[in-house]
Fold this sequence. Notes:
The protein has one helix and ten strands. It is an alpha+beta fold.
Amino acid sequence: xxxxxxxxxxxxxxxxxMAFCAAxxxxxxxxxxxxxxxxSVIYSSDNAGRAKFVSYGDKLCSWDxxxxxxxxxxxxxxxxxxxxxxxxxxxxxxxxxxxxAGTQWVCATYDRxxxxxxxxxxxxxxYACTGEYSEQDPEHCGRAGxxxx
Length: 149
């Protein structure tokens, strides 16, 4: 069964691929990314979770904003505009915040010093969601945020 979130993600990937192709066709070049652009803080659809991307150190972070027994989780992926396959998304491990509501940001690093290296200048797309940590099942994902490594 297709959910609104699934449809949004599929459409988002399709629009990103079309924008890339259109920019490449007009200029004959891959669009340049501004290295080191932080993303804004975004919200889950139930407003109980937050996520942000910090370009310095390529950190994806989650914040639990509501004491409801659920955890906040940040989902992220990066896009390689030079890849031969479109869309060329590479997914990061989800960042679960199980510390409790209002306690602290929980971040994972995806630079050379982290667990999964992401090259500089790559486009990042991320989501704020909430869910049951024990089930590892993110739900209530909000709109996408964007940044550049």
